[in-house]
Amino acid sequence: MSEGTMQRAAQRDPSHQRARRLSRAVVGAAAVPVMLIAAGCSSDSGSDDASKDSASASASASPSPTVQAAAYGKLPEACDVLSKDALADLVPKAGKSGKEGASNDTATRASCSWNSLDNNGVKGSQFRWLSVSLLRFESDVTRGEGDKLAREYYAEQVEDAQAVDGAKNVKSEPVTGTGDEATAVRYDLKKKEGSFKQQTIVARVENVVITLDYNGAGLAGERTPSADTLTALAKKAAKEAVAAVTKANGSAASASKSPSDKATSSTSKSPSKSSSKSPTKKS
Fold it and tell me: Binning pLDDT at 50, 70 and 90, where does residue 4 land?
């Protein structure tokens, strides 16, 4: 069985089908017509003109809508977010570098994936697949602040991970010490090549969302890997990815938030709420 075949087998359906949905706020404005009744005399007409000029000046002096700038303005190189030691544990046969995903703007969207096939001949093989995706949201006067958009996308990613077709024994739990909020979702997925153990860690730090997908399988008679072991490795890797995002933006980004902003961000965390949803199949 070729490594390319293994890669396609390991890539779970939602990794390619999951739409990166972004909620968009639509702002509508209602115009109120104003009827101006002009008097017949020329002196009143001059008064009307002065009133119009005054109203126009007042309107032009009104401040434009503003929104707080997003905390993080860049992303790290996706293939460099994990240390060599972490990769050696996660994908020991992957080689020195991963495969960078296509992106037309790596400052807002980046990804990298790795494949590992430990082929033991007639004794079977151990397969591992790892993917890290990063998405950064800018603040926008129409859609809202970057961290708000990131929170919405984070919740969608967790929901998607919990609703994979054919998934068995789905379990979700909040992950502490990983960004502003994080959730781990794991399940079993049966394919013709074997039984795969899938782990997905979704984490948010400020206005950046990180989705780490990691799965493994024992093929051709090799033992099935431990889900607990794979989940522990995935959680550790997610923490490294979060740290890489923070490092790329410097410590000044977090320090720039006021105490009230930090309190608001803290109260908005709800990984347990997202992870409590029962997995359902999507149409």
Answer: very low
> How many Cα atoms within 13 Å fall on the side-chain side of residue 82?
29
Q: Give me the phi and psi of 125, to 5 degrees please.
A: -140, 155
d(CA 283, CA 126): 32
Angle at the Cα of 126 from the Cα atoms of 231 and 209, rounded to 5 degrees: 35
* pLDDT bracket for residue 31 (50, 70, 90): very low
Q: Return the higher-pLDDT residue of 206 and 191.
A: 206
Q: In which order are the strands placed within the sheet that holds 194-205?
A: 99-100, 109-119, 125-136, 208-219, 194-205, 181-191, 168-174
Pairing of strands 208-219, 181-191: unpaired
Rounded CA-CA distance 5/161 in Å is: 23
Three-state secondary structure along 165-212?
A: CCCEEEEEEECCCCCCEEEEEEEEEEECCEEEEEEEEEEEECCEEEEE
**Both structure tokens of 218:** 């024992």
- Indicate the average pLDDT of the chain: 76
| Tokens matching residue 279 | 């997995």
Nearest CA among 248, 237, 228, 197 for reference residue 113: 237
Report how far apart, in Å, the C-alpha atoms of 248 and of each of 32, 75, 116, 253 are.
48, 6, 28, 10
pLDDT tens for each residue of 193-241: 778 999 999 999 999 999 999 999 988 878 889 999 999 999 999 999 9
Rg over alpha carbons for the chain, rounded to the nearest Å, is 26
Residue 84 pLDDT exceeds 90: yes
Q: What are 59's two structure tokens?
A: 């309107």
